[in-house]
Write a structure and sequence with these properties.
Blueprint (H helix, E strand, L loop, with lengths): L20 H7 L2 H7 L23 E6 L5 E5 L4 E4 L7 E2 L8 E7 L3 E6 L4 E4 L7 E3 L7 E8 L2 E6 L4 E4 L7 E2 L8 E5 L6 E5 L4 E4 L7 E2 L8 E5 L6 E5 L3 E5 L7 E4 L7 H4 L1 H6 L3 E7 L2 E6 L4 E4 L7 E3 L10 E6 L4 E6 L4 E5 L2 E2 L7
Antiparallel strand pairs: 1-2, 2-3, 3-4, 5-6, 6-7, 7-8, 9-10, 10-11, 11-12, 13-14, 14-15, 15-16, 17-18, 18-19, 19-20, 21-22, 22-23, 23-24, 25-26, 26-27, 27-28
Length: 358
């Protein structure tokens, strides 16, 4: 399953590592079926597009809010789009790759890095208008990129791949883990403390700026697709089958907030129960407000710093899209991206309809 995204949707368990027959099909989240289906052509400029700008129909996987109105999103076939008016209009960027781009992060308003399939890395110095291809020394898929400090970026992906850059993404050093584990996401509450997450319930922690990593006991073998640590001690991990975990002690212990810890087949879980617990792919916080997104248009919002979560609905017509990426701003805005060019802006836990401003 490597080479698709979100990565490792097969959600391998320790026993056995490969599922067969109906159980194997049942283990795949619904989004995989959507990903493998032909992408519809949208002639009305729906999704992220708007009159006067580019029509966005590509599947989108990552987003970054530079401020309340400026954002960059990335997706299939090297797609990069920018908006300067809160999503009313989008402009296509010039990107020197056709590889899928899965994640993007910025170090300030101008300098950014995007990563993707087959080790693709591109950087920008003008807010995302133009991009330069970089060599990371790997052909493995990269699923997440993040700045831990100014000029200091990290990219993670297939087979324990960890790359480090100290010059804003121009050059990279291999810091890969020894574990055979797909790394899907990361979070850096400060320059010293970082967390990596992935399959088999993996969460790895550093307290020395990435020099060493320690595996944390999460209590689950389920794939974790998203992780967010607003502080070095308090964090959340989300993943397959609606899993939401929380820690308040830097990952030493985890509490289940949603979903189930154990891996079950569709036969054991039941189809309707599986629909009620779609896989979750990203989690972000802006102050006390938290957001989680996933399959079947799933949006969870917390207004109490992650103590509780409530389901929110996207506007009609977007509520069945799979949602892959999230971005939040210090001012409280949120941006959700997903299938078929979906890019929805929100504020205070509510999301705008097409052509509206939240």
């Amino acid at each position: 399953m490597h080479g698709t995204f979100p990565p490792n949707r097969r959600a391998r368990s320790r026993r056995p590592k490969v599922r067969h027959g109906l159980a194997a099909a049942a283990a795949l989240p619904i989004a995989l079926l959507l990903l493998s289906a032909p992408r519809p052509v949208r002639a009305d400029g729906a999704g992220g597009g708007a009159p006067g700008g580019a029509r966005v129909v590509e599947n989108l996987y990552g987003a970054k809010l530079l401020d309340e109105d400026h954002a960059v999103v990335v997706g299939a076939f090297g797609a990069v789009f920018r908006t300067a008016d809160g999503g009313r209009n989008w402009q296509a960027a010039k990107v020197p790759t056709r590889e899928y781009l899965f994640a993007v992060d910025f170090d300030g308003p101008s300098d950014g890095v995007a990563v993707g399939k087959a080790g693709a890395i591109v950087t920008t110095a003008d807010g995302g208008e133009t991009w330069t291809r970089r060599e990371g020394g790997t052909d493995r898929n990269l699923f997440s990129v993040a700045f831990s400090a100014p000029k200091h970026a990290w990219a993670v992906g297939d087979w324990g791949t960890v790359l480090e850059s100290t010059d804003g993404g121009a050059t990279w050093t291999n810091r890969s883990l020894k574990d055979d584990v797909v790394l899907t996401s990361q979070s850096w509450p400060d320059a010293s403390h970082g967390y990596l997450a992935g399959e088999f319930g993996t969460v790895q922690k550093t307290e020395d700026g990435g020099a060493t990593w320690t595996k944390l006991p999460t209590g689950t073998d389920k794939t974790i697709f998203g992780v967010a640590f607003p502080t070095a001690q308090k964090g959340w991990a989300v993943g397959i089958d609606g899993l939401v975990l929380r820690t308040t002690d830097g990952g030493a212990t985890w509490n289940l907030q949603r979903g189930r810890m154990g891996i079950e087949s569709l036969e054991a879980l039941g189809f309707m129960e599986a629909l009620r617990n779609p896989s979750l792919y990203d989690v972000r916080f802006s102050g006390p407000r938290g957001y989680v997104v996933g399959d079947i248009g799933t949006v969870l919002v917390s207004d109490d710093a992650g103590e509780t979560w409530k389901e929110k609905k996207l506007p009609t017509g977007r509520d069945m899209n799979w949602l892959r990426g999230l971005a939040v701003s210090a001012g409280g805005r949120a941006l959700v991206v997903g299938s078929n060019g979906l890019a929805a802006f929100g504020r205070d836990g509510e999301f705008a309809g097409k052509g509206e401003r939240p």
